[in-house]
Amino acid sequence: MSEAIANILFVCDLPPCNYLGGSVLMSRLLTDYPSDKITVLCTSDKLRTLPKEGRLKCEHIDFPLTNWTGALGLGRIKGFINWLLLLLLAFESVRIIKRKKTQVVLAIAHDYLFLSAAVACSLTSTPLILIVHDDWVSRTRDSVGIVRCFGHKIFRALAKNAAYVYVVSPFMQELMKSQYGVESEVQMPFIEIGKREALPTHEDNICAQNIRIVYTGGGFGSDSIEILIKMIKGNKLREFGIDSCEFHLYTDINSEDVKRANWEDHRVVFHGWVSQSEVRKAIETADILYLPFSFKEEWKYAATACPTKTSDYLAAKKPILVCGPDYSYIVRYAKEFGFAEVVHELNENSLAQGIARILDSKEHRERLLRNASLTFERNHDVARQRSRFYEVANRLARQ
Environment class of residue 149 by beta-carbon count within 10 Å: exposed (0-12), middle (13-18) or buried (19+)? Predict the structure, then answer.
């Protein structure tokens, strides 16, 4: 890597690791940053419970917070305690900034720790790099009273005071400009080119007698996942000449949730959350990679986001099937660059037709793979993103 001179304090709700999209992206972005130049400050419970895989080889400092919930007024009490703790965290961040001679603070607008980071930066005149993966105001509007009342003003003020802002998609960039008057740079999901090249060259030997669909990721598209499961259980694909289909999910949905949702079927296999190496092996076994997004109103806040698994899928040299509403960025992105078969209606027939279109035409599959490769090279190479991040951090440190 180019010379990295900036001493960075990364204040985060989730430490970089192999869990959830934002944590995975930060692990990939910072994995070769000099360990003596970066310190991670995060909550105690997440540092204790989240996977060790993907952790940065640097000092991790934990800070206690309670959860924000509880019956009979307990949630309000915990909330009050947490706001006091967040204030203390701001002063703890100031202490670390001075002790570590921190030149740049990095934070993600995820839960609430970035608020403390912004206060610490103001108190010490340290530049803040703010990363925005989701619409924070919409995501947290119903969770904490003070955010529900003043969230837009709080976020606008902190974002405008940040020295630099990264966003995860062009849609998010537009939202930051229109809603908050903040300029930003797009930093889309990424993966190592070396890992991409390690995947085998795709052999077009898909057989309609036994299709294997693979999904890796979190729960953003539970209704889009459910419609695929219903389609498989109802043997809908046989109407399109597809004899057998298996759906393999590598996600943190537990067995009780599966039973409650009536998703149990021998053709639907839940593998749980697995390591990145196991994810790559799972992707290698797929005939089709499934990229769902929720049609539910409650998930609309994330419509401007680009899921982390997008980069993994684009690098995989396998056909991609996207299912989501027209307003979601991932649907518009797939249509614009033509790297996936897109289904934008939540019904079994439309989804089955999408799968059939992939299977029925080798020429169509080859076009999807070609476009996926071009899209990856253009937007999702971690080396390019990493180089740009180091450049920004070093420039802010010099200033």
Answer: exposed
Tell me the residue ranges of DSSP E strands in 254-386. 268-270, 288-292, 320-323, 341-343
pLDDT in tens, 241-282: 898 899 999 988 888 888 888 999 999 999 988 888 899 999
Give me the torsion for CA of 143, 172, 305, 4, rounded to 10°: -100
Partnered with residue 250 across adjacent β-strands are 216
Say which residues have a Cβ less than 8 Å from residue 350's Cβ, sequence separation at least 6: 343, 344
DSSP-derived secondary structure letter, 317: T
Please name which of 96, 93, 165, 142 lies closest in space to residue 122, comparing C-alpha atoms. 93
Q: What is the pLDDT of residues 141-175, one digit of tens each?
A: 656 566 667 888 999 999 999 999 999 999 999 99
Distance, CA of 250 to CA of 260 (rounded, Å): 18
| Cβ–Cβ under 8 Å, residues 144 and 79 | yes
Quote the tokens at residue 35.
């360990």
What global pTM score does this model have?
A: 0.89
- CA-CA distance, 337 to 372, in Å (whole number)? 8
Counted residue by residue, the chain has a size of 399
Q: What is the DSSP string of 102-115?
A: --EEEEESSSSHHH
Find out whether 165 and 119 touch, Cβ atoms under 8 Å: no
Find the DSSP H helices in 275-361: 276-284, 309-314, 329-337, 348-360
**Which residue, 196, 231, 398, is CA-closest to 312?**
196
Distance CA 201, CA 48 (A): 39
In this structure, are residues 323 and 226 in contact, taking their beta carbons and an 8 Å threshold?
no
